[in-house]
Amino acid sequence: MNVLVINAGSSSLKYQLLNTEAGQVYAKGNAERIGIDDSFIGHQEGDGEKEKLVVELPDHRTAIKHIFEILEKVDVPVDGIGHRVVQGGWYFPESAVVTDETLAEVREVAPLAPLHNYAEADVIEICRDLYPDLGNVIVPDTAFHYNMPEHAWRYALPRDVADGLHIRKYGAHGTSHRYIWKAASEFTNGACHKLVSCHLGSGASLCAIDGGKSMDTTMGLTPLDGLIMGTRTGTVDPATVFYLQRVGGYTVDEVDTMMNKQSGLLALSGVSSDSRDIEEAAEAGDKNCQMAMDMFCYRCAQLILEMAQSMEGWDTMAFSAGIGENSDVIRAGVCEKLAWMGVKIDPELNKVRSGDVRRISTPDSKIDVLVVPTNEELMIALDVEDLLGDK
Ligand code: AMP
């Protein structure tokens, strides 16, 4: 089946056209600065050169029309569309076919992720309207965590308040963690039972996966919780929020922006939110950058053990996403802090650069340590195939 995977943001839209049987990517790209000036579409066919098409994109509708026009030239029929949805809230324990009802549900839970869900729902509606013959599927990032045990998802708030407002741990990156489990199981021929999946990108989260089920994860009500991220704080004492307002004089919106966009590695390093820049500066002796990297690894190792505890054991850990797949320095830093637990990696294997799943632990390591390039788009496409049937 040929599936168009769409990942819509408020002013951008990423797309990928791929085949579910072969995993082949026919084309991919991104529409940027939608509704702003200087909009463009970056488009790439197969392994070809990326081209930049300067086009006016006043809204998402225009962007989608352009993308379909560009894809016509690829000459691969689109059989169905999969939509990444950031927040599935209390409605989606798994992916679902788009209907009036499921679309309304994506909008109903949007206050939990206002920057994403409204745009995603709009894009789904536009796709249904423009291409009524194509089926659409909602793939929420939270679905994988929906059935975590209650002791993992419930917050110790007054029950009526928490339940009335649907406040709980929803987690995120679920589609990626689900793919990482699948790839790790295949790579180890089923020897992986209790996996700590480490999705370390500009957004970062860990997931405890026992026999394919999410048992706990580090992101919470929103993707702000847990690990230190590119520009997000990760976990801080919640009272920091009141203190910033009462004593610091910041408004709610200012605190929101500060904690989501001006914190994390960016704030700690004072240099960049990108771990490549930080690694470079740390190597050149920048103390703040060295501290930023050390803190990132410290929190990561600490929360890996929290995830292991939630499964009462672990046999495998997998590094994934931009930092996890590419930074041997961060992988080494995290594993070094876990050495007392018997985690041991081979420095040479750790340095290997590859797009394949690979093992970096030594044969005598107590924990199997893997690097798993994530593939959320393939996972989304497979869900579309599951729900809409092969064509
Ligand atoms: P993602 O959100 O998964 O796309 O990850 C993006 C982040 O991965 C970037 O902000 C970088 O910090 C990091 N990254 C990507 N490539 C590399 C690399 N070669 N070495 C170190 N970090 C990298």
Automatic annotation (TrEMBL):
Q: Which UniProt keywords apply?
A: ATP-binding, Cytoplasm, Kinase, Magnesium, Metal-binding, Nucleotide-binding, Transferase
User: Which residues are noted in the entry as substrate-binding?
Assistant: 84
- What EC number(s) has UniProt assigned to this enzyme? 2.7.2.1
List residues binding ATP: 14, 199-203, 274-276, 322-326
**Reaction equation(s) it catalyzes:** acetate + ATP = acetyl phosphate + ADP
Required co-factor? Answer: Mg(2+); Mn(2+)
Q: What does this protein do?
A: Catalyzes the formation of acetyl phosphate from acetate and ATP. Can also catalyze the reverse reaction.
Q: Which NCBIfam families match?
A: ackA
The protein depicted here goes by the name Acetate kinase
